Amino acid sequence: MDDKKLDLNLLLALEALLAELNVTRAAKRLNLSQPALSAQLSRLRGVFGDELLIPTSRGVLPTAMALELQAPLRKTLDQMRELVSNARIFDPSTASATLTISASDYMQIAILMPFLLKVHLVAPNVKVMVRQLPDSQILKTELERGLTDIAFLVTEGLEGSELRHKEVLSERYVGIARKGSIGERPMPIDRFIQSRHIIVSPRGDGFKGATDDALAAVGLTRKVAFAVSSFMFMIEAVSQCELLAVAPQRLAERYSDRIDMFAPPVPVAGFGIAMVWHDRTHNHPARIWLRTLLEEFCAEH
Fold it and tell me: Which CATH superfamily is domain 97-171+272-300 in?
């Protein structure tokens, strides 16, 4: 057999011919013209070095080789059909997959920690790696290369991005203080600006954030004593001393047993969080399942 001349269409043609034992009916089954199918039969004879089908007054008669080929051919084509079908369907209850999510520690604590518990229940064979969010250029490369399947970024600045994205969360800020230390409510603005504060500055950008912009709009400043790289650090610090901070509400609620929340004395603009992914994984069934589950989970939380 000359396998260099073999292609899938020829095997499908042979399957139909052996099933129908009639060129006209087989051509109709394949949506081909009779001359086109006859040409494929001629090629098949060259590939296998056998007549395969002998013309008779009632149609065609399979040769001994054709009869030997029929069962393994059907099995092989059925396996190929199953392979294609399975590639389009993702059943989380039985499927195995390894998926990667990049996110800030805020998203990891507020959303992904409880989300992984859900994955554990509904997809027992799925592995999820959660990675710290890198800078934008590294993230773009990781998404392009498939090292990260989904990332979570602040929505602002994503408009016009070549990456696919969809906003899944709207977050607002709350003030936080050590448990039992707030006293008067609402917190007087004088106390707020005279207290020492701790902020999160993941890239080491300095001692200002959204709260400082809100204060500046009314001609005020606060005392920012510490700028740290993670929300966990900030929460730990606030829970143990007299520092104040302004934090995303979902994150603060996770630690309500150790800190108290209060309304900032000036309105602080919140932010949106978008799920971001690359075109290369857009139509992959496992990645579609993950994005859908994450979107639903975020909507519920």
Answer: Periplasmic binding protein-like II (3.40.190.10)
Predicted confidence (pLDDT) per residue in 76-98, tens digit: 888 887 777 666 778 999 989 99
Using the predicted structure, report yes or no on whether residue 42 has a pLDDT greater than 80. yes
The secondary structure of residue 164, as a DSSP letter, is E
Alpha-carbon gap, residue 125 to 87, rounded angstroms:
17
**Given pLDDT bands bounded at 50, 70 and 90, which one contains residue 263?**
very high
Residues 158 and 12: their CA atoms lie apart, in Å, by 47
pLDDT in tens, 125-174: 999 999 999 988 899 999 988 889 999 999 998 888 889 999 999 999 99
d(CA 202, CA 188): 29
Half-sphere exposure of 38 (CA within 13 A, CB side): 8
**Mean pLDDT (whole number) for 7-30:** 89
* pTM passes above 0.85: no
pLDDT at residue 1 greater than cutoff 60: no
Looking at residue 244, the DSSP 8-state letter turns out to be B
Give yes or no for a contact between 11 and 79, defined as CB atoms under 8 angstroms apart. Answer: no
Which of the following CATH numbers is that of domain 3-88: 3.30.450.20, 1.10.10.10, 3.10.290.10, 3.40.50.300? 1.10.10.10
Q: Is 221 exposed, middle or buried (0-12, 13-18, 19+ CB in 10 A)?
A: exposed
Secondary structure E strands in 21-136: 53-56, 59-62, 97-103, 126-132
Measured distance CA(175)–CA(193) in Å, rounded: 12
The class that CATH gives domain 173-269 is alpha beta
CA-closest candidate to residue 131, choices 152, 112, 103, 156: 103
